[in-house]
């Protein structure tokens, strides 16, 4: 059965918007102050998301009811619970809190909008791969800011990395989302390739990506990212520990190994930095106790 031309046009427009999101995630837009839609990256992202939501609604004009998943049903009471502090918020803090709740509602609407789109399995896999590519791009920016700041096109302000989002907690949450997608591809049996050699290569690549994302969660030093990564790992363990135990164990081992190596490197670099600072002070002030050899 051939699809109407309007459906194909909206599909092409949705793909173009996703490519626009991919391009926007790699472009640095300087932050001139403010919050919410006053930030250029936020305004551009919201515009693209609103356009995609309108295209989804235009794609199915005859549908009178919306499909909802169990996750969407659980997400809405969570948004309502987070909205309770608005009832007793002080006047000076009401506007920022209202913007955050509005962002949660916008995310819920965008998620529900994508529930209305029926995609074939290969297109869903391509969509997940695109989201992982977005995460890999942010990981590259974070690595450049951490170890090669001279090569990064995003300037580093302070000592914490923030990626293109210019906020460490947003970067940590985004990396935790990429960790969840990589775990899904590594653990769920529906994504297993038929060729054994190709499947081994895929699992090795996903294990390396899981270790890298776990290490970045440690290096970004975002408690929101840590909480998201821990909840993702715990949720996968509770849901699939009996169904996909071998693949889940290998994926969890890669995550724990990446986190442990990143923690050890962070502690070693901190100790090395303290030693360098101590030796520098010793050269300036001769006779300091820290100059004594042990």
TrEMBL record:
The chain crosses the membrane at residues 43-60, 72-91, 97-115, 127-151, 171-192, 204-220, 251-270. Residues 161-183 form the Protein glycosylation ligase domain. Keywords: Ligase, Membrane, Transmembrane, Transmembrane helix. Pfam families: PglL_A (PF15864). InterPro entries: PglL_A (IPR031726), WaaL-like (IPR051533). The keyword Transmembrane helix applies. It comes from the Bacteria. The keyword Membrane applies. GO terms for molecular function: ligase activity. This is Lipid A core - O-antigen ligase and related enzymes. It comes from Serratia rubidaea.
